[in-house]
Amino acid sequence: MNNVDLQFNDWKEIIENSLGKTEWITVYKSIQTHCEEEFLYCALIAEKTIKRSLEHTSWDLTIGNGFPGFTFHYKNEEEFAEYYRYSFPDNDIEPLIFSRSFNGNKKGYKEIAEEFRYYFNLYEDRINNKFISIDDDGDEEDVILIEDGKIQIKLKYLKEFLAVKKMYLALFFDIKRYSEKTLEELQIKEYNNEVKNDNYIYSKDYGVALKNNIKIWGRLCGKKMIPGLINFKPQLFKGKNFEEFIIDIDEDGKEILYICDPEKLANYFGKNPEAPNFMTPVFFRKEVLSEYYSNSEKYTVEDGILYCDGLWSLFIDNDHKDYVIVFLGYLGQSLSLKAKI
Fold first, then answer.
1. Beta carbons of 226 and 20 less than 8 angstroms apart
2. What are the C-alpha distances in Å from 301 to residues 265, 290, 307, 315, 322?
């Protein structure tokens, strides 16, 4: 405890440089030890509210608040009730983490905003306390990690969500540290100052605490604003990168490649007459199916077809002695971006 940094030089570096820029963002934390208390929380804040929020270090949303409810006011001695989804006028502040409690009858827990979970269609892995994104190829990626007293969200998902909402993420922090030494013994002058920048504000102060051998405490409190993706543009359909495959050999023995995009291939009805036909055969070595056979939980190989866990299927000719044959158009029509054939 004697080596506790009551000037918070470590947190000063984090706030001013790395906070909100790492692969994983801690959006909730509640850790208490003998020499330190660390609380982190967050909220979604409309851009119009940022300037007002950065005028003070206090949190704009405290843990346990932000639920739907009514506000009451009087006009001409008559009571009026107005419903707010997040208990804030104009919904300019929204919770991302809800702290659920049930009057002590049931154990409380933290819950991620439904809109975030639904937007990315996240699967809840209750056994491992995390939420997962599953792509078109069936590959999984952790998006939210939940531990005792800590919740983390992967930055790239958070930044996209902020862009969609046209809001900022306010990361709140409140850290207390305790020392068995006095300020004089620590060679620290009395301080009570505030630091402010375009996207963060925090204050440092101290107090006397004569109990349990603790003589002094230091506190760091404030917030930092994290923006969403710049120039984010929603797409009706996400673009698909079509690969090129060898379809022939030219007169010099060089391989001729062509893209498998079905929209750029010819058919028997006059479409793209200068392009290879949709039904152009592409030849692969038999070994190409080894990965699919070895991963039978995800892939199924049958006579004439390859399945990927119900996500996509591909018609193939796997009866040939030396090759697996697939029509060029089917490769573009059926395979996901990560398929390895």
1. yes
2. 27, 10, 6, 10, 17
Q: What is the spatial distance between Cα 302 and Cα 300, in angstroms, rounded to a whole number?
A: 6
User: Residue 120: what residue type?
Assistant: F
Cα 217-218-221 angle, rounded to 5 deg: 135
pLDDT for residue 207 is more than 60: yes
Structure tokens at 249: 């050999």
Burial code (b: 16+ CB inside 10 Å, e: under 16) for 16-26 equals: eeebbeeeebb
| pTM greater than the 0.70 cutoff | yes
The pLDDT value given to residue 212: 74
Among 170, 168, 169, 165, which residue's Cα sits nearest to residue 234?
165
Q: Six-digit token pair at 302?
A: 């049958």
Q: What is the 3-state secondary structure (H, E, C) of the chain?
A: CCCCCCCCHHHHHHHHHHCCCCCEEEEEEEEECCCEEEEEEEEEEEHHHHHHHCCCCCCCCCCCCCCCEEEEEEECCEEEEEEECCCCHHHCEECCEEEEEECCCEEEEEEECHHHHHHCCCEEECCCCEEEEECCCCCEEEEEEEECCEEEEEHHHHHHHHHHHCEEEEEEEEEEEEECCCCCCCCCCCCCEEEECCCEEEEEEEEEEEECCEEEEEEEEEEEEECCCCCCCCCCCCCCCCCEEEEEECCCCCEEEEECCHHHCECCCCCCCCCCECCCEEEEEHHHHHHHHHCCCCEEEECCEEEECCCEEEECECCCCCEEEEEHHHHHHHCCCCCCC
Quick one: tokens of 275?
């392009």
Is residue 250 predicted with pLDDT exceeding 70?
A: yes
pLDDT of the residue at 337: 47
What are phi and psi for residue 98, nearest 5 degrees? -105, 130
- 95, exposed or middle or buried, with CB in 10 Å at 0-12, 13-18, 19+? buried
In the numeric block, the tokens 């359909």 are attached to 237
Please report the pLDDT score of residue 128 as a whole number: 96
Task: State pLDDT tens for residues 255-300.
Answer: 899 999 999 999 999 999 999 999 999 999 988 898 888 888 888 9
